Amino acid sequence: MKPDKKTVLPLIFLFIILNGFFLSGKTLLDKWGIDRDVVLIANLLFFLVSFVAFFIQQKGLKNKNPHAFVRSVMGSMMIRMFLVLVALGVYLFIVGKNVNKPAVFVSLFLYMLYMVVEVAIMMKMNRRSNG
Predict the structure, then answer these.
(1) Cβ proximity of 39 and 60 under 8 Å
(2) Most buried in the list 3, 17, 46, 111, measured by CB within 10 Å?
(3) Residue 74: helix, strand or coil by DSSP?
(4) Contact, 104 vs 38, CB < 8 A?
(5) What gap in Å lies between CA 46 and CA 102, rounded to an integer?
(6) pTM reported for the whole predicted model
């Protein structure tokens, strides 16, 4: 499999588009009761975690042993879950009872969106390497 730098572009485009929306849509987010800072930090966190997980999985995909790819997927999933739990714990510790539930739900949607994009990229790369 030939390494292709364009494979990570969907993650970068998703991050830029979402950041642009969150930065320019302050009045809309305020109208919906969503804390813009929370979703901006969540977007950055999910982008960084997806970026790291992507490269871990890409390394596992290049390995001849199929178990290495499974281990890389499981490892990146564990890293993602622990970092999200730590970030949520830090957020809850900082804000106490003033949790912005709409922002947490938007962050949950961002988590799913980044995961879908990452899985789509991996499936495309897997088809290319095995086909």
Answers:
(1) no
(2) 46
(3) helix
(4) yes
(5) 17
(6) 0.87
